[in-house]
Amino acid sequence: MGLGGLLDALWQVEFLRMVVLAAVVFTFLAVGGPLFLVLAERKISAWIQARVGPKHVGPHGILQTVADTVKLLQKESIVPHRADVVLFTAAPVLVAVAALLDWIVIPFAPGVIVRDLNVGILYFAAVSSLTVIGILTGGWASNNKYSLLGGLRSAAQMVSYELPLGFSLLVVATLTGTLSTVRIVEAQPYPAHFYPSVIVAAVVFLIAATAEANRIPFDLPEAEAELVAGYFSEYTPMRFALFQLGEYGALLASSALFTTLFLGGWKGPFALPGVGPVVDGMVWFLLKTYAVVFFLMWVRWTYPRSRIDQLLNVSWKILLPVSMANLLVAGVLVVLG
Amino acid sequence: MPILTLTLFLPLVGALVLLFLPKEDAERIRKVTFGFSLATFLASLGILSRFEFGRPGMQLVEQAAWIPAVGIQYKVGVDGLSLVLAILTTLLTALSVLYSFRENHRVKEYNLLFLLLATGMLGVFFALDFFLFYVFWELTLVPMYFLIGIWGGPRREYAAIKFFLYTLVGSLAMLLGILLLYFHLPPGQRTFDVLEIIRQRPLAGTGLLAQLAFWGFFLSFAIKVPMWPFHTWLPDAHVEAPTAGSVILAAILLKLGTYGFVRFSLPLFPEVFQQHAPLVATLAVIGVIYGALVAMAQTDLKKLVAYSSVNHMGYVMLAVAAAAWAHGRPELQQAAATALNGATMEMLAHGIITGALFLVVGVIYDDRTHTRGVDDFGGLWAVLPKYGAVSITAMFASLGLPGLMGFVAEFLIFVGSFSIFPVFTALAALGIVITAAFFLWTIQRIFLGPTNPRWAELPDLDRREMWTLVPLVVLMIIFGVYPKPLLDVINLASLDVVAMLR
Amino acid sequence: MIGPAHYLGVSALLFGLGLYGVLTRRNAVAILMGIELMLNAANINFVAFTKFVDPTFVRGHVAALIVITLAACEAVVGLALVINAYRHLETVNVDQVNLMKG
Amino acid sequence: MNAEALAFYALAAMVLVGGFLVVQSRNLVHAAISLVPTLLGVAGLYVLLNAEFVTAIQILIYVGAITVLILFVILLTEGATGLRVRQRNEQVPLALLVCGILVVLFLVVLLRVPWGPPTGPMPAYNPGAVGRSFLMPYVLAFEVTSLVILASLVGAIVVARREG
Amino acid sequence: MAQLAWLVPLFPLASYAVLAFRGRALGERAPYVAIGAMALSALLGWGAFLEQVAGAPPYVWRAVWAVGGERTLTVGYTVDPLSSITVAMITLVGGLIFVYSVGYMRGDPYYARFFAFLSLFCAGMLTMVLANSFLLMLIGWEIIGLCSYLLIGFYFRRRSANMAQMKAFLTTRVGDTLMLVGIMALFWQFGTVDYHAIFEAVREGGESASAVVRLGGWEVPLATLSALLVFGGPVGKSGQFPLHVWLPDAMEGPTPVSALIHAATMVAAGVYLVGRAYPLFFYTPHHEALAVVAWVGTLTALLAALMALAQDDIKRVLAYSTISQLGFMMAGLGVLGYAAGLFHLLTHAFFKALLFLAAGSVIHAVGTNNIKEMGGLRRFLPVTFWTFLAGFLALAGVFPFAGFWSKDEILLEAYHHAPAVYALLSATAFLTALYMSRLVAYTFFGTYRGPAHPEPDPWTPEDYARAGLHAPHHGHGTPHESPRVMTGPLVALAVGSLVVGFVGIPGTGPEGGSWIHHFLKFEGFKEAGIHAPSFSWPLALRSLGVALAGIAVAWLVYGLRAVPSERIRAWVGPVYPFLRNRMYIDALYGWVFVRGGLLLAAGLRWFDVHVVDGLVNLVGGVTVVTSRLHRLFDTYVVDGLVNLVGWVTRGLGLLLRPLQTGRAYNYILVAAAGLGLIVLVSLWRL
After folding, report:
1. Quick one: closest CA in E to B410, which residue?
2. How does residue A225 score in pLDDT terms, banded at 50, 70 and 90?
């Protein structure tokens, strides 16, 4: 990110390019994000549970999410009594922004990336840690015992899963020798003898990512049975929508990163005929990302919710040691390789 | 093989070994102590065998830097004078340790102190460095203080403290002297080395300072000898000290003073000593006559022997004063040498004889009669023939009967000092008669006359007591009949000292 | 052109703020936050020096990173103490925790 | 005013205002939350100073971990509830004076020093450079820091653990 | 034979050693060891003597005994006419006395110890005689002094014996000390103690010989002074005038002791020494020293004779007679009668030993010493009587007996050189004859009176038990003659005291003089032109007349009681008690020296304890007082200061206390202010 480059001219061009790309990506997210995913989630969960899912609004219920959004928009946004107004409103924004910021480093196709930071995946980890603050502030600001507890729990969960996630990112960095996402994709497919370490890293990444996104089986914060709606139980529609945006954004971002790190990013098994490398990359990239999303949703609706202490134990006592060992193995492999 | 250092510190090693023995095991402690003291005696004989008789001056010198910054070094050496006294020390230590086998009050400390005392004394005789000398000089004080203070008689505290303070005051004066000498050395070569200081004689022309230093040394040694006005601590110390303690006190500790005069005062301050030689001689003669007369008036046997020591030490001091007077008068050099020979011989003779006398007193006092009043006895010769023979021989040796060691020493002193101080020596000769008188009177009151019924069944000397007394008596006779070998050794040392006086 | 002076100025101000926070806040946690600010001010200097004075070996960055880690550790321990204090003394206000009064 | 100066001043303002809020705000949670913009501002400054790696770490650790921790502690202790407790202690004026003097002094000292041009080019890919310098010249510092982390980790757990 | 002379003293020494350690075990056989040793010495002694008689040159042996600087102290022995004849006399007389004491001492619990001391005595005596250095002589001299002390006090149970032995030793000791100073003077002068070296130096009369010593006003030539000092020894040992007091008391010892020591040998040692060191006395300016010797001798002789008259104890009479005879010998030597004095020494040894032994057998028989309790013993003790008579005649100086020749020689010399001395000596001779006859009269003539109060047995039954003997029973019937072992030596001595005299008959030696004159001649006389006066018969007859007169007078007074002694006693008035109490000299000495010494000693002891020690304690006391003062000063002033300091510090403390508010942030503020200050200062100095 040579933003502060020596010459102002060079400075000007780079700046413009980045702004345009950002705009494109954020719109894709706004559209592809909650609108599509919510619907997809409900359709898949229905399919899994052998039921149809929403089919009245629009053909096969496609417009269901749009209908929900419109419904949310016209609801009155109320602020709980004596809640901390500033923080109450700031929290959802923070979570949403954090989710969006992930996308800066994700390479859709060769050359198609908002900003190829050479600290790439480290930036991703940093940004993902911002959401924790958002959740905490939200939880506290709504001046509601349950939301506070929910906020604390989710914060604890996300913090404890950040570590295994970080380590698996490190494994990838060690194997590819770089932090920049683009170079990682170019470095794939990994040479054969890296595979054991890569697979383990991938599994750890997946588990950590679902936890980060508060998805079943780790969606304890807003487990209905115990804590009503968790940290956003007090939030009314618009802020709720932002939270949803944040949540699904994070899910999408993690699966996108998963594909970049482990599934070879924009590299497809075979070049699609007739189209340029950019579109080809994009198509493969999206296919893989949505496959991962599908897998996650599949997981959500098949696994029971786990207890908070089990959840933490898995992170501290299993994932962390495994990922650390994996990092060690990766180091050895790199040295031997 | 540093034989000197070995001999010097062997008793100390013994003391350390003692520390590890259990307090109750008195028998073993005594055997170990006696073993070590005997070993030290043999070591001192080892020194004798290694000593080249022909060569004058210090021999077997062992040297090691100790506190080089200030010029203090661990330097030990031995010449005719100190060798002979050292052997006397080790012999008497061994005998007194053997004698105090019967002591069973706090045996461990007792023996420990004895070994410590042995090292102290040997150190004084061997030391060739003023600092080392002073350390050992003080070291001898402490054990003796405790020996008197703990195992002594009824008034022991008073006696112990008096002894300690008296000598301490003296040694402080000496320290002043030493420091005066030390600081008058040219700044570059500041050292405490005795031979060096004697060679350079820093206080030669300094008038008042030399006087001060001389009187410093004089006070310390005079108290130790003891000379006439400073002697009052001796009878108390002796009366209250345990037998073995007073043997060592009389036999060795008094010699420290005279040794000090011969080794340090004479060579260091010849002019000043010569200036005061008549005064010293007067004090000596007073000591002789006064000591004898007061001894005659004593009723306590130990006090009597104590005052006899004052008398004998008077003779030694007379000889030393005579030698001092011979400074710068070549024609008197020979007489001075004879006098000094006599003085050293008297130190030895007095050491052995008075040592024996105190043992003699100890034998009847400690085990048998528990009274030292001279008039409480009578006719013991019939009851204790062996004991009688030994003690009468010792007493006759003490009054200077020819054929025994005492006479040889006194004869040499008289012959030597007469040509220097005819009048004083003649007066001192009077002392012989008085000495003879009070000793005979003592013999008469104790051994002759009707047997005191109380002591009719006293047991005679047992084997152990014989072993402590007989060697001393034999030595008295041997050196009395043929003192030449001993005198040859001493003569060289005296010639050295006289040479320094020229 | 932004020179080192600018950064040092900002860091000085930030440091002053941090110090002021530390000096005036009664709550232990607030003081900790003040300390964090001061540390950040230091880091700014470090990084600024690396860029403007001596970039070899990116010494400033290394220092900054170390300061960050140590700040983390310090915060962890400080807060652990605060919790412990809170649990025992029922208060976190520094001026009430003065058992060591002379 | 080029973009860089603009960015610098914006970030500086963000940092200083944030800092002021942290120090001044009456509500402890507000102070903690306002810590976030300050730290992000500082991160931004690092970006201006071409220190990407440090920026990432700053965000990851300072914002992600330390602030969260502070928030946790505030929520756990009565800080959050006892809002009405007087937050300021009695030496405010004095402290203000001292800090003011200090800041002025620092500024005087820092500005008076003649900063020469940089001695060499800034290494392009500086995360690698940082990694290398960590493991070459400053490996000792690296090891010591790891030790400190371990010690404080264990220490904190022991201290904060609820007995029994 | 001369070379072996050094063995002579060693034999008795060896016997002493044997007897001292194994004495008790030997029991009855103990004396034979002593006698055997004595015989060996006699053999050697007479061998050497006969060699010397045959004219063998004097043999000298020397060895270094001690060394003083370059000067050496030598010891050694010389065999020359004087020493050999004396050794011969001692060994002979000593041997006979040993034999006699076998009988006399039989049954004594300390039998072995007696002979041990006797042998030691002979060893000492022989060493002294043979010695050729003052040092060795002094050693021998003191050993015989020791033995006389031990033997006098042999019956140590008796207090009188203890007092006597101490008196003897101390008096002789005074003499010895004077002699020691004399020897020191000689050593100072000549740097050696060897006889020959000193005599040579004295003869040359070098500058060292004529040195003069200022002694309190009047000049005394050093030679004379040292000679007289040396003469002090003989005065003490031979009981000359001022120091004679111990000899009469020495009779406390058993009779053989008196015979051997206080008659024949030890007392003679003094005379022998004067003889041996004759050059010392001779070469003094116009023989001053010899004059002194003469007069001391004469005076002693006269006084002793007088005192002898008033004694009732048989042994005390003989003791006084010995003193008087010794005075005679000294006088002889003093009047340049070198050979005469020594000749009398030899003869006197024989008949005086005889008289003592005879007295011993009398006492042995009668059980008491007091002659007034005896009488008429000639019938009971015939042999003792006749031998005693022979001794008496010799002592009195009656013609054929030895005493006549030797005493006459002295009178002859005295007549030629010092007429005054001659007169006094003749008077003494008369008195000698008188008191001896009185003694004989009382003891052997008249009727036997029997002991009024017999001598108590010196030993307690416990002593006998210890020696394994039983106490002898004292049934005293009529006195009976002593056994042969005692009478034998008496007869031998009687013959001796007859025969020895013949040596002095003029004409026996070459050039008409007597053999003894030739044998014992002093070279110095020839150089000084003094030649011995030839024997003059008229003089001899006159002295014989004097002797006979003495006997006649005694016979008149005591025998026939023509003039009863009581009347004489009344007539002489106070003189008798004066003499009886030994002219109060003993009492004088007792008061002046003994009691005086004790008083002085007690005084000094008091002085020592109170004054000198007092001084020390005073110092102690003063320090205690000052310490008490010090304590007061200390508590109020010094302590006050200390408290003040304490108070000040506490005040300061209070001042500073508020600084420690306990609030951390105060401290940080101070720290920050400090930091600011530092930066300010560094800035200001920059």
Report:
1. E180
2. very low
Q: Do C23 and E665 touch (CB under 8 A)?
A: yes
Sign of CA dihedral B488, B333, B316, B431: positive
Yes or no, beta carbons of E664 and C94 under 8 Å apart: yes
Residues 6+ apart with CB under 8 A from A23: none
Contact E19, E36 (CB under 8 A): no
pLDDT of the residue at B116: 93
Residues forming a β-bridge with E66: E73
> Looking at beta carbons, which residues of chain B come within 8 Å of E156?
379, 381-382, 447-449
E64 sits in which H/E element: strand E59-68
The backbone torsions φ and ψ at residue E215, rounded to the nearest 5 degrees and listed phi first, read -115, 95
- Residues A155, D36: C-beta atoms closer than 8 Å: no
Of residues D22, D119, D159, nearest to C56 (C-beta): D119
| Residue E636 CB coordination number (10 Å) | 10
C86-100 mean pLDDT: 71
Kindly give the parts of chain B with pLDDT less than 70.
502
Which residue has tokens 């008035």? E573
- What ipTM goes with this model? 0.51
pLDDT along chain D (164 residues), means of 10: 81 91 83 88 87 86 88 74 60 82 85 73 71 80 89 87 68
Residues of D in contact with C62 (CB under 8 A): 130, 133-134, 138, 141
| Distance (Å) from the alpha carbon of B432 to chain E's nearest alpha carbon | 7
CATH class of D1-88: mainly alpha
Three-state secondary structure string covering chain A: CCCCCCCHHHHHHHHHHHHHHHHHHHHHHHHHHHHHHHHHHHHHHHHHCCCCCCCCCCHHHCCHHHHHHHHHHCCCCCCCCCCCHHHHHHHHHHHHHHHHHHHHHCCCECCECCCCCCCHHHHHHHHHHHHHHHHHHHHHHCCCHHHHHHHHHHHHHHHHHHHHHHHHHHHHHHHHCCCCHHHHHHHCCCCHHHHHHHHHHHHHHHHHHHHHCCCCCCCHHHCHHHHCCHHHCCCCHHHHHHHHHHHHHHHHHHHHHHHHHHCCCCCCCCCCCCCCHHHHHHHHHHHHHHHHHHHHHHHHCCCCCCCHHHHHHHHHHHHHHHHHHHHHHHHHHHHHC
Against chain E, the chains showing at least 3 CB pairs within 8 Å are B, C, D
DSSP class of B451? P
The pLDDT of residue B375 is 79
Residues of chain D contacting residue E679, judged by C-beta atoms under 8 Å apart? 102, 105-106, 109
> Is residue E408 a contact partner of residue E540, using CB atoms and an 8 Å limit?
yes
What is the pLDDT at residue E218? 65
Q: Which candidate from B382, B415, B456 shows the least CB-CB separation from E68?
A: B415
Could you tell me which of B394, B129, B96 has the C-alpha nearest to residue B247?
B96
Give D60 to chain A, closest Cα distance, Å: 4
CA neighbor of A126 nearest in space, from A107, A104, A108:
A104
Backbone angles phi, psi at E497, to 5 degrees: -65, -15
- C23 near E CB under 8 A: yes
Report CA Rg, chain C.
17
pLDDT score of E207 more than 60: no
Average pLDDT along chain A: 77
Residue B269's identity, in one-letter code, is: F
Contacts of B429 in chain E (CB under 8 A): 177, 180-181, 184
Using alpha carbons, select from E245, E308, E498 the residue that is nearest to residue E391: E498
Q: What percent of chain A has pLDDT over 70?
A: 84
Q: Do E69 and B334 touch (CB under 8 A)?
A: yes
Whether the link from the prior residue into B226 is cis, omega within 30° of 0, is: yes
CATH numeric code, C4-90: 1.10.287.3510
